[in-house]
Amino acid sequence: MMAIPVIAIDGPSASGKGTVAALVAQKLGYHYLDSGALYRLTAVAAQLQNVAVDDETSLAQIALDLDVVFAGQQILLDGNDVSDALRSEAAGVGASKIAVLAKVRAALLDRQHAFRQAPGLVADGRDMGSVVFPDAQLKIFLTASAEERSQRRYKQLIEKGISANLADLLNDLRDRDARDSARTVAPLRQEDDAILLDTTEIGIADAVNFVLKNYELAAGVQVNY
Ligand SMILES: Nc1ncnc2c1ncn2[C@@H]1O[C@H](COP(=O)(O)OP(=O)(O)O)[C@@H](O)[C@H]1O
Ligand SMILES: Nc1ccn([C@H]2C[C@H](O)[C@@H](COP(=O)(O)OP(=O)(O)O)O2)c(=O)n1
């Protein structure tokens, strides 16, 4: 039997992974996995339970036990809408800190694999192509300059009515990229079998079309767009 197809999109913070992955999934009628949300959920749940960011055993248990419902744009943790708290930079930093722990990553594996359902999946994160879905039909490494990414994040937060400081965002983003790239388990990096997509000077629609075009080539399917 043919494996259910997966498109893996990995890359640094605010490179546009979520936006591009969700649009590609929509175009293909595929499911979408925002793997970063699982790390963010674990960090937020741990904070609510006063568990320290280096308590690996407790954090892994929290990751295993997450009671989460993905309801469209809303994400419910223990029945409460935590969507806004999850998107905060504080949750991003917390997620990056707990993501260095091997037991936490292992605890989230089954949950991520469960998203692989017919007719296909588009998954975004840091290790979608390298660890979680190594047999993905297409692997994209999506990036943009740190300056461009921090500006995008700034605009995104301001548009949501969340106050932000561009210099702080650039610093946070550099710290987070450095931590995500330096860890020993599933580090952020472009693997040999991933296609580079640098969107520093490319808009969202072109980025989406680039992924679809490469998927057509890789999977031998035809996409109507
Ligand atoms: N190619 C692009 N050009 C301009 N803005 C983009 C591009 N890709 C994404 N964005 C915007 O940048 C912001 C961050 O994108 P997002 O998908 O949240 O990134 P990530 O999931 O990598 O953190 C969003 O507001 C999104 O609309
Ligand atoms: N597959 C993944 C996804 C996220 N992480 C970690 C590392 C990231 O800094 C945090 C937050 O990831 P997320 O993709 O939600 O963050 P950005 O939207 O890219 O800013 O979680 C990870 O280690 N592995």
Automatic annotation (TrEMBL):
CC per GO annotation: cytosol
Gene3D superfamilies tied to this protein: P-loop containing nucleotide triphosphate hydrolases (3.40.50.300)
Gene Ontology molecular function terms on file: ATP binding; dCMP kinase activity
Keywords of the record: ATP-binding, Cytoplasm, Kinase, Nucleotide-binding, Transferase
Catalytic activity: CMP + ATP = CDP + ADP; dCMP + ATP = dCDP + ADP
InterPro entries: Cytidylate_kin (IPR003136), Cytidylate_kinase_dom (IPR011994), P-loop_NTPase (IPR027417)
Annotated binding of ATP, by residue: G11, P12, S13, A14, S15, G16, K17, G18, T19
Localisation per UniProt entry: Cytoplasm
Protein name: Cytidylate kinase
Organism of this sequence: Sulfuriferula nivalis
Upper lineage: Bacteria, Pseudomonadati, Pseudomonadota, Betaproteobacteria, Nitrosomonadales
Gene: cmk
